[in-house]
Write a structure and sequence with these properties.
Two copies of one chain form a homodimer.
Chain A: H1 2-22, H2 27-43, H3 45-61, H4 66-72, H5 76-91, E1 99-104, E2 110-117, E3 120-125, H6 130-141, E4 145-149, H7 155-171, E5 179-181, H8 187-193, E6 202-206, H9 209-218, E7 231-237, H10 241-253, E8 262-268, H11 269-285, E9 289-292, H12 294-299, E10 304-305, H13 308-311, E11 319-325, H14 328-338, E12 343-348, H15 351-360, E13 365-370, E14 387-389, E15 397-399, E16 405-416
Parallel strand pairs in A: 3-4, 3-6, 4-5, 7-8, 7-12, 8-11, 9-10, 9-11, 12-13
Antiparallel strand pairs in A: 1-2, 2-16, 14-15
Helix pairs in contact in A: 2-5, 2-7, 3-7, 5-6, 6-7, 10-11
Chain lengths: 419, 419
């Protein structure tokens, strides 16, 4: 453990030094690295695919298959997407340096709040190797040094990708240590990273609920908690049934494995009889399993009985918990009790209910008459996404480039002392 | 421990319920509570002083004296200040509800970012009972429920103050649980609070370095780290010596026990001979002990020899570490190595050095030609101060009311689903 820590401390020291240089690099040069890195990914794709095949082979030997194996797999198309992602980041506006406000105080001091990089960003993530290029690009654009600790399953792929990026840094005269990959994928190395307060300014876990929980519980470095979404759609009193059905079908089935997919449908009791049979038919036609409360099971004969556990579960699958509520109050109470604070939608034509839902539901994104699937950096127009925060400190909801920055106060005086 | 946790969970549950009500309370009513609470502090000052005398007696019996005892002591003047503080908070603008931006997306979704309260704010603090009224007032104004855990030494005083505040809440029809005091002042209760992720949105430690370290290391709740300031003044090439002397004397001696006081003076080698003897004389006339490097000890015969430890120490006392540096690079390197990231000042008439210092020094507040003592919510014009953050996540430097808020995304649709 001591050895691990010392080893990781080296990463920390190097990152800190690199971060100081990066903080002063003009955006043109950062963009040059991003574009070069994109070129390198394409140029060296043979090598990347070769390394990726080692990961795939190891995973197959370990019995991994299906969606998990697919996540790990790279091909020319996926490498092209990674490269394209870097080029798109290069085209975004650089938030660093912006003076958010500046004012003159009565004593003549000129005080300004200026956006600066966070410094050193640690990211702990799981199988998908494309996260490596993506996160590195976002950190670089915002002038942050990145320490990446990907999963053991993707180690060969991640190494090949980081080499491309480091090569681009080197060619552009920027410190290679701006992007470092922790090659020790033991649990100890993750734990050591979580304790590196001296070097890391923030730690972002990207992955499943288990990883996120472990980071939140063990990290002394400030964490941005991302991802878990037990999202709700509440059918209150839509002006037309079609809109309600379209929204729940979209929120549940458009991409069931992601965090902004709906997991529970709440229906006002006055709507239940006319809405539920038709909506559940549309859902089960798309292979969605319905788990309902007693009322639902009466109206929808093929529904299974929901248990207390169902209300709290993020299925990430074609399963939907369904409950009939007495009122908007009961709907909001249910959401407050079971929601992870990600995204919730009301479908209604009642103005005061819409206002109340927006005001009272305490989640990162609250919707009136739209699918929860829109909680996404790109859909929100940020041009990029670092992850979706479900905590309230620093960043909430989809995080774009700005969320990878902090600010400092710059103060111009001419000899002021405090009286 | 399990009992403690259950007990604290009750605080958490009550706070959560109160926070939901508070989030929707218009500012007029919040101000009414603040003004009533101020009245109550004055009206019941006899009772508060009586309770305070119990704390004072216990502290005396435990051998507490001097500054520590003074911090604990209340009198009519101090209670009047607390009341005045609450009235001032009532006069500030309420940040809650502000729509930071709103835009229409190509698909017609109207997406806005709206400022909302954090929810439940936990504060762990030490001896000074005035912190109780102060923090409770700031949380209330921003629509947050507060769970306050003050020190054992001030328990009677804190209880009396919180009763006044709760009474005002009750009279105004707001939930009394908006402000709760944890009366169990054991270490276990503090640790239990640090693990209440389910109920607390943020935990703010206010007190000495030991308290802050313990909270950062043990809390799984997101923390805002406040306070420690190993602040530097760098005399580069001032246009007049007087300005340099005034600034270091002010930064060191104006109030040596606070976090924005200077702890280390760095002097460019070209300035050392003319600046140091005069500056150190002015400092030692104000009883400042000088601990210098070799060069300093040569120029200032009464200086003590500084050790490596001195560069890293936040004295909070009339002691100053002094070092001669070869260049601005060495000054910046020294600061990056030893600073706690609070406040640093350069005194110079060199334009490019001023720019470099502002750009390269990675602290919450960086000054040109002014005293570090200005790093303060009131001096920055925020009208209030929650503390001074030395981390980069969420808030950096002096925290005002805005820093006790987060945002949520409110989205207005008319049936949009994701394609």
């Amino acid at each position: 453990m001591a050895g691990k820590m010392n080893n990781l401390e080296e990463y920390g020291k190097k990152a800190k030094i690199a971060s100081r240089i990066l903080a002063g690099i003009p955006v043109d040069r950062k963009n040059e690295v991003l574009n070069q890195a994109a070129d390198h990914l394409i140029r060296y794709q043979g090598k990347i695919l070769e390394e990726n095949s080692k990961d795939i082979k190891a995973a197959r030997n370990a019995g991994v298959k299906g969606a998990l194996l697919d996540r790990l797999m790279l091909n020319e198309g996926r490498i092209a997407s990674m490269a394209e992602g870097l080029r798109q980041i290069a085209m975004l506006e650089d938030p660093v340096g912006e003076v958010l406000w500046m004012k003159q105080r009565p004593n003549g001091l000129l005080i300004g709040q200026q956006r600066v990089p966070l410094g050193v960003v640690g990211v702990i993530y799981e199988a998908r190797p494309n996260v490596t290029a993506d996160v590195a690009g976002l950190c670089l654009k915002t002038g942050n040094a990145a320490i990446l600790r990907g999963g053991r399953e993707a180690i060969f792929s991640n190494r090949a990708i980081v080499e491309c990026l480091q090569d681009a840094l080197k060619k552009t005269g920027l410190p290679e240590d701006s992007i470092q990959l922790v090659t020790d994928t033991s649990r100890e190395s993750a734990l050591a990273l979580m304790r590196m307060n001296q070097y890391l300014d923030v730690l972002i876990p990207r992955g499943g609920a288990g990883l996120i929980k472990s980071v939140v519980e063990n990290s002394t470095v400030p964490v941005i908690e991302t991802g878990t979404g037990n999202c709700h759609v509440f059918i209150d009193s839509p002006s037309d049934l079609r809109m309600g059905i379209d929204i729940i079908v979209n929120a549940k089935t458009h991409r069931p494995g992601v965090c902004n997919a709906a997991e529970t449908l709440l229906v006002h009791k006055d709507m239940a009889e006319i809405f539920l049979p038709e909506a559940c038919r549309a859902l089960s036609e798309r292979n969605v399993e319905i788990r309902g409360d007693e009322k639902v099971c009466t109206l929808v004969p093929y529904a299974k009985k929901a248990t207390e556990e169902d209300w709290a579960t993020e299925y990430l699958d074609l399963i939907l918990a369904v409950r009939v509520v007495e009122s908007i109050d009961e709907a909001i109470d249910h959401i407050q009790k079971y929601s992870t604070g990600h995204s919730e939608a009301i479908v209604t034509n009642d103005y005061s209910h819409a206002r109340r839902f927006l005001q009272e539901v305490d989640s990162a994104a609250v919707y009136v008459n739209a699918s929860t699937r829109f909680t996404d950096g790109f859909e929100f127009g940020f041009g990029a996404e670092v992850g979706i925060s479900t905590q309230k400190l620093h960043a909430r909801g989809p995080m774009g480039l700005k969320e990878l920055t902090t600010y400092k106060y710059i103060v111009f005086g001419n000899g002021q002392i405090r009286q």
